[in-house]
Amino acid sequence: MRGFQNLMLVQTNLEDMESLEETVASAKRNEHEDLGPQEESAYFNPLLRAALRGDTEEVQQIFEDLEDPDHEKANKLLMEKDIIGRNLLFTTCMVGQSDIIQSLAKYGVDLKDKTARGYTLLHCAAAWGQLDTLKTLVELEADIYATTFRGEKAREIANRYKQTECVEFLDWAEAKQNLRNFISQVQATVTDPEKVQGRLNKEDKTTSIKACQAKLDWLENTKDPTAQDFIDQKQQLEDIMLPIFTKLATPRGQDSTVKKT
């Protein structure tokens, strides 16, 4: 375990890229050292070792094979954190082991977890320019809006370290999520009896529901949309909903033209 502690207890953060490079380089060097069985068991977190190698079969065996010597402590190895709140997935993100992240996500790891300074796995992958890992994390619903203690999202971290492809992808992912969030907001609002009572008529509700469904269909069926496409679709839905939201914002009793349904 001492090797894992040496790796994860290094006092670095995402502002110090040089130190992080040394950390991962050290992990890779240790991974390839020719150690005897006793030394290896004493110096390594076996789950971390498998993760750095990209060995999904070994990861699965540790978690699912009752006879594996590390099975009983698998969850502990997965959740173990250093003093600033990083578990082994942060190192996995640094080296871009996307398949490992997919595998570990099945075993209860919190992909939205933060370090003491508010860094997430997305921030880590963005800083290191691990585009495929970013895509994997977003597919697994990591929080693209999460901010560090400095108020930076993963997109700002990627931009700071000039990870251009990561910036572009995160802009795309956020535009898509913004559209999804607005659709959900509209659906929740127009189906809430407390919010719509006495303010919206049947036509208003029908218009809202159909508009949301049209945007969901667009999301489902459009191939290779751009970030601007998502922005445009959201704006179209906002334009449709503006007069309806205006009615909802009108205090009850002031709009006599609204018929109760």
Walk me through this protein's architecture.
This protein is mainly α and about 260 residues long. Helix 8 runs parallel beside helix 10 (about 130-140), helix 9 runs antiparallel to helix 10 (about 130-140) and helix 9 (about 120-125) packs parallel to helix 11. The protein is about 60% helix and about 0% strand. Residues about 1-45 and about 255-260 have low confidence and may be disordered.
List keywords for this structure.
disordered C terminus, Ankyrin_rpt, mainly alpha, 15 helices, 62% helix, ANKRD_45/46/60, single chain, ANK repeat, HSP70_C_sf, Ankyrin repeat domain-containing protein 45
Question: What's the gist of this structure?
Answer:
Helix content is 62%, strand content 0%. It is mainly α and 261 residues long.
Write the layout of secondary structure elements.
Layout: H1 2-8, H2 17-31, H3 37-43, H4 46-53, H5 56-64, H6 74-79, H7 88-94, H8 98-104, H9 121-127, H10 131-139, H11 154-160, H12 164-190, H13 193-196, H14 202-221, H15 227-249
Helix pairs in contact: 4-7, 7-9, 8-10, 9-10, 9-11, 10-12, 11-12, 12-14, 12-15, 14-15
Keywords: ANK repeat
Protein name: Ankyrin repeat domain-containing protein 45
Beta fraction: under 5%
The arrangement of helices and strands along the chain is HHHHHHHHHHHHHHH
Counting DSSP H or I runs of 4 or more residues, the number of helices is 15
Number of strands: 0
- Major sheet attributes: none
What is the C-alpha radius of gyration, as a whole number of Å? 24 Å
Which structural class matches the secondary elements?
Answer: mainly alpha
Quaternary form: single chain
Shape: elongated
Low-confidence stretches: 1-43, 257-261
The average pLDDT is: 82
| Beginning-to-end CA distance, first to last residue | 66 Å
Q: Level of helix content? A: 55-70%
